[in-house]
Each structure stands twice: as C-alpha cells, then as structure tokens.
C-alpha cells in the first residue's frame, strides 16, 4: 500500500495559513493523510511560504531523504515552484507520478576552534565575515593549496541552488544545478597597493575543499552565516567547506529551469 502520510510545514502569515487549510482539505479528498506534526515516516514534505520557509523546513527535517516540494505564498519563491492556484494540478500530478526528484548538493562546513569542532549544513551558502561590519583578513586554500590572502567584507561559498541568491546579489555567476560545483565569491574585496584580492567568483569542482583561515585577531570576532542563520565561535581557527555526503531530494513538477530563471530575474 502506498504511503499516504504527507508532512506540511507552513509560514504563520495569513496567506500561508489560508493556503495550508485548502491544501489539507484537497489532500484529504484524495485520501492522503496530511500532518502538521513532522513525521520521519512521511512520503513527502510540503512547505508553504517563500524560499525562507523552504530552507527552514529542510533544517526542521534535518536534511532527511524525504522528498520536499514548495508552494509559494512569498515573493520570489525560486525553490517554491507551485502557486496556490495550482494545488489541484499539483495533487493530480503527484497522484499520477508525473514528477521527478532533483538531487541538490548540500554544503558541509567543518568549523575548527581551539576547544572543539562543529559541523553545519547549508542548502544555499556559507559566509565567513567579521562582526560589526568590519573588514576581515583571511587566507584561502583550495585543497591545501594557498590561493590568496583576502581582505574585504567576507567570503561566500554557494551551492548551485544558492548561486541565484546572495551569491548573485554579490555579482557571482549562476551555476546550473546539473553542475556539481561550488561558487567562491568575494564580498567587497580590497584591491590596493597594500592588498590584493580576487574581485570575481571562482567556480570550484564539487570534489574540492575550500578552507577559510582568518587571522588570529578575528578568532573571537567572527560571524559565520549558514543560509542566513548567524553563528559565532570563540577561538576560531578555520572553516573547511565541501559538498556533504548527502543530497536534498527536491520534488519537481514539470519545471523548466531556464523559464524559471527568466520569470524570476528578468
């Protein structure tokens, strides 16, 4: 018997709550068992909101293998491809297996401090910068090969999915999700007689490791952003960023990537 249990994670605003209520009614009409209490046994997780809701849902499910799909009640909604007006078409497509699973790579950030190490996952990007909007100086290594001593606002490392977000706003290029590569993008790098920093993104193959090593003076005044969530650490030594050994399984209903790019950004 097919698994009819479906998780629903919704934003709390009026439009999201209204859409969630309609969605639950329609799923029940199709003999599904929707739940707003997160279950690891569900066959599908549906998020209702904007891209922020999608990211929060991925974190709430702890990056599980359960496929996830988004209904957009926000503004941009690059992850959330289904509109509230398309609920019937979405359920019909899901009923008839007219969908595909897109496996999106996830970043794993290993944070090393003098006392202990931490591991963080990111769908979109990891950023290392200084606190209080100060300039940060750090060394950047690719697989232990020294690339540069960077000076500027910070460094962003993005997945292909994340390349259309913060990365793009910094002037970084869009990377197609079929290309398993990381974008390493400088944030306001300083180029002067005293400092030399790359001013454009680097696209790194997915089997490489990007190491960010801040100078000692930033050991206790660092700020690490993981999909927008802020983390600070005492006695920070370095951050190693690579693709994790897991993927995000995003359910896609008849989506054209290039049309999505055009409709969202052009």
TrEMBL record:
**Which top class of enzyme applies to this chain?**
transferase
UniProt-listed GO biological process terms: NAD+ metabolic process; NADP+ biosynthetic process
What's its EC? Answer: 2.7.1.23
Q: Which UniProt keywords apply?
A: ATP-binding, Cytoplasm, Kinase, NAD, NADP, Nucleotide-binding, Transferase
Tell me which SUPFAM superfamilies the record gives. Answer: NAD kinase/diacylglycerol kinase-like
One Gene Ontology CC term in the entry:
cytoplasm
Q: Pfam families per the record?
A: NAD_kinase (PF01513), NAD_kinase_C (PF20143)
Per UniProt, where does NAD(+) bind? 51-52, 56, 124-125, 153, 161, 164-169, 188
Q: What cofactor requirement does the entry state?
A: a divalent metal cation
Instruction: Give the family this protein belongs to, as stated in its UniProt record.
Output: Belongs to the NAD kinase family.
Q: What PANTHER family does the entry give?
A: NAD KINASE
Question: What is the name attached to this protein's record?
Answer: NAD kinase
Species this chain originates from = Aedoeadaptatus ivorii
Q: Which gene encodes it?
A: ppnK1
């Amino acid at each position: 018997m097919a698994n009819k249990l479906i998780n629903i994670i919704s934003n709390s605003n009026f439009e999201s709550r209204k859409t969630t209520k309609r969605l639950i009614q329609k799923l029940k009409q199709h003999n599904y068992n929707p739940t707003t209490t997160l279950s690891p046994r569900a066959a599908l997780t549906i998020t209702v909101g904007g891209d922020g809701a999608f990211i929060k849902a991925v974190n709430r499910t702890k990056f599980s293998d359960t496929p996830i799909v988004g209904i957009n009640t926000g503004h941009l909604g690059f992850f959330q491809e289904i509109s509230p007006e398309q609920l019937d078409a979405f359920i019909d497509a899901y009923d008839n297996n007219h969908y595909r699973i897109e496996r999106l790579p996830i970043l794993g950030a290993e944070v090393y401090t003098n006392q202990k190490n931490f591991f963080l996952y990111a769908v979109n990007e990891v950023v290392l910068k200084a606190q209080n909007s100060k300039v940060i100086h750090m060394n950047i290594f690719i697989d232990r090969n020294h690339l540069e001593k960077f000076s500027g606002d910070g460094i962003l490392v993005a997945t292909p999915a994340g390349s259309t977000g913060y990365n793009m706003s910094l002037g970084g290029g869009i990377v197609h999700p079929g290309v398993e590569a990381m974008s390493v993008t400088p944030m306001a790098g300083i180029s002067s007689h005293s400092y030399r920093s790359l001013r454009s993104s680097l696209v790194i193959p997915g089997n490489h490791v990007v190491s960010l090593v801040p100078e000692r003076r930033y050991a206790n005044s660092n700020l690490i952003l993981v999909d927008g969530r802020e983390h600070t650490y005492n006695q920070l030594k370095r951050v190693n960023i690579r693709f994790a050994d897991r993927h995000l399984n995003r359910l896609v209903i008849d989506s054209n990537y290039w049309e999505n790019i055009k409709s969202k950004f052009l």
